Records
---
Amino acid sequence: MSTLVVESPGLLTTVQDLGRMGYGALGVSPSGAADTVAMRLGNLLVGNPTGAAVLEMTLLGGRFLFPQGAVVALAGADFGASLDGRAAEMWTPHVVEPGMKLVLGATNNYARCYLAVAGGIRVAPLLGSAATHLMSGLGGFQGRALRKGDVLELGARRKRIEPKKVSQAVLLHLKPRKKLRVTDGPQSELFSQEAKQMFFGRTFRVSEESDRLGMRLEGARIPVDGAAEMITEGVTLGAVQITPSGHPIVLGVEQQTTGGYPKIANVIGADLHRLGQLRPRDEIRFERTSLAVARSLWIEQQRLLNNPAQLFV
Amino acid sequence: MNFRAASDQAVLVYLGNEIGLAAHERVLKLLQSLEKKPPKWLRNVQPAYCSLLVTFDTSQADHEGVEDALREYEARSETMRVGKRKTVEIPVCYDEEFGPDLHDVASFHRLTPARVVQLHCGQAYHAYFLGFAPGFAYLGDLPNEIATPRRESPRRQVPAGSVGIAGRQTAVYPYSTPGGWRLLGRTPVRMFRGGRKPGPLISIGDAVQFRAISRNEYYQLEKA
């Protein structure tokens, strides 16, 4: 059986997939890759089903040894990867000969880089998913971030892997941006006109205290007067909560499943992968859009991702 | 029944506007009817006190279609009976070491700590929903005599198993997380089981009874 040996894990590297959807009644949030678009493309490049388990690296990548060899692809942020000492291009599959090492460094652009391996990373699924949920220590590899010396099993490769590359047009279309599109949140109408003008007019800075659970934003304080106390209710990925101090928190993939802060907006589905690529100190803005536009953008994105002929050159 | 779009992929269904068993029974019934015959666009349901957050597959349905369907599910669920629920007993050690806020809560209400413990264990609670973290059950309603607001500044780390109160709610923290509830004690029992048959100890709608135990018993149960 093939393995991957962690010689150095990087800053925060976890096993992720598309997450475990449908267990809200148990208090379990989906978790999964923060940028599922990059993750899916990475899997397609190595001939995997889009939902196969991958490694998600954060800001600083690791060093991985493949004693039996493998076929790998890197997607998402560019962590300056090299394979056996030679630069390894992003968005294309690489054949790793037995004993070769893949070495990644600090990010050159965004927050998360995905390492997809042909056959996928093999871990025991929990509630149907390989995703790591760090807070509860559930799922993934022993419910935790990878450490030096961990040995991960790889699934069997199914087919010959065709050389291909994700097309430039697709990369441009899906490129992370610093402007996130949002629809109104369920408590939008409780916020004053002034609060909304501030929210849509100002630039916010991603705080250092941001993680997979949520992203704290610094900058203007949004007044919450009309929207202070509410009964705890379910909250969604990408919800923009305004805390009593006026600072927004955008919920991430490992989000709490319920909350009692009012929500002024929600990042649209087609921009969630962009949310997952934001780094501390990045500056972002919000742009309001309608449910109908958000829906058509989502459908367009899914169509693109489900159409290999359009994705690769 | 009211709707509000939560996002481009989710709708909030409100079945009341106050915390109580009446609204919650409607929540349970709608949840039950959705679980019994899930519509093909359904991706997740997150129940709460008087609402359900319904996440759907946007390529299969839009808000209007989902809301229409949910109205039908709710109409059908009216005649349904809520399935039988279990009673869960949770052993709690209320020692000062485990319940750092017990004395503050007691003096806030001019009660003895022993009386606070007696009141906390003196009734069964209704599990309204699981939220926040896996296995975190929101239990209510706490007797008015010990209803206490949250701490002004939340703790950065609340130890796993801590039993807290906030307003008229009480709960067990399944994991070590930040938290603002006032801590009365700690249980050695695990609130969420991983492994091959994963699931929470307490399910939505269950009755939960706390039982006071000694430090010795706590450590014995912890080892077991």
Note: Chain A has six helices and 21 strands.
---
Amino acid sequence: MAIKLPIYMDNHATTPVDPRVVDAMMPYFTEKFGNAASRNHAFGWAGEEAVENARAQIAQLIGATPKEIVFTSGATESDNLAIKGVAEMYREKGNHIITQVTEHKAVLDTCKRLEKDGYEVTYLPVEKDGRINLDDLRRAITPKTILISIMYANNEIGVIQPIAEIGKIAKEKGVFFHSDAVQAVGKVPVDVQKDGIDLLSISAHKLYGPKGVGALYVRRKNPRVQLTAMVDGGGHERGMRSGTLNVTGIVGFGKACELCRLEMAEETKKLSALRDRLKEAIMSKLDETFINGTMEHHLPHNINISFAYVEGESLLMGINDVAVSSGSACTSATLEPSYVLKALGVGEDLAHTSIRFGIGRFNTEEEVDYVANRVVETVNRLRELSPLYEMAKEGTDVSKMNWKTA
Amino acid sequence: MAYSDKVIEHYNNPRNVGSLDKKDPNVGTGLVGAPECGDVMKLQMKINPDTRVIEEAKFKTFGCGSAIASSSLATEWVRGKTVEEALSIKNTDIVRELSLPPVKIHCSVLAEDAIKAAISDWKKKAGEGDAVTQAGAAQAHS
């Protein structure tokens, strides 16, 4: 089968919408286009029915009940709603929030804003494997702690946090537990009951659904979580998030979740086999390559590799028919290298050489083989150009050099 | 990030990649940048001590496409020039030639530094010890 170029292997950034999801959405654009809140006619009822159906599909994927699903414009909004919503609602109870350093900016920046408003935030460090230390968490909790927010799986390095253990600790201490599960839902079995999660952020476009829609799971029992709404208006979503529902997006979101639930077991097998094939093909042919983050608690379809002595952006330029991303400063808008890799203790020089591969539902073995070859070819070519590789081969310890006087 | 055709051309066909003998008294070696910054350039020149003409230039770079292109271009430009002519090459000339966007201007600055560092090294070996050039290179780089 001929490979279609360019190849997309950046499924942590976004995913293509599954054609079956597009089919499910279509009628809601031009035929059943009613506002789901129009209570008085068939157009509205059709919209409402579709939304409630989707709610159930999403709830089923994560072990929740439909009433606990609040629709938003995406996981960034869900993160904002969860953290700010709890902070404001429980202000009398306390003002301390615990999170960790490798969270997505949607969580970190929300916490930074709350700090400006007088809240105290503890940012737990991670160990070299990318996971938090549970004792650090226990020690950080005070009588004023009202929320713990720890992501389920990291978007750059694919590492999965000890979620069930965190849930247990949170429950013991009577603190709400929010998890940004954007990268995990639909990929690994997430169960809010088993994992002891009270609030969960989900994004449709990360699991083969459309962009512009997401959800926040808000627990109703044991314990009941209340939130101050961040978007006021017509009182939609039980007063938690006003605004006309994105019916077409929601229908797609629901369908995407249903497909994930039905196909997850098979798909996980296929994707981890492809990921391992890619890893083996690349690392067996190149020296001085390093995996970032532990592979023991890891998403099945992700791998983040540093290629010593080769800068990330130049590597991406060399494999310009493959879409992946890098932790190099040159690829970021702010010229800062990846803060996630920095938090792991990966040296800045190696952070600049990292590439993130996110394999997806539509990637094939042929594509994986092609990508592996292109990567190996390009790394070798760029190492020929690299003064650092030359020095390393000569026996100079590049890390010990004093670069100011070179 | 859209690269200019010239940057892509230099990236795909870099000029003068390689190394000269560091110990040759007629070779000046400039090594600038730092791995933590994501940019390291090594530029070497073989200079005729009598005519002061740069007869050969080679480079190796750890950095993005613009950094590779800037240093590749630098080796192209210094060849055949005298030391004094090479010292007058400005980073802005490189920016113009390669159509570098603002966020990549620092790559051209590093290339200019590399030229000056290589010449400074050669002068030191030749016993010229040009304090002005060395101070200039150190200042531009800090």
Note: The domain at 5-136 of chain B is CATH 3.90.1010.10 (Sufe protein. Chain: A).
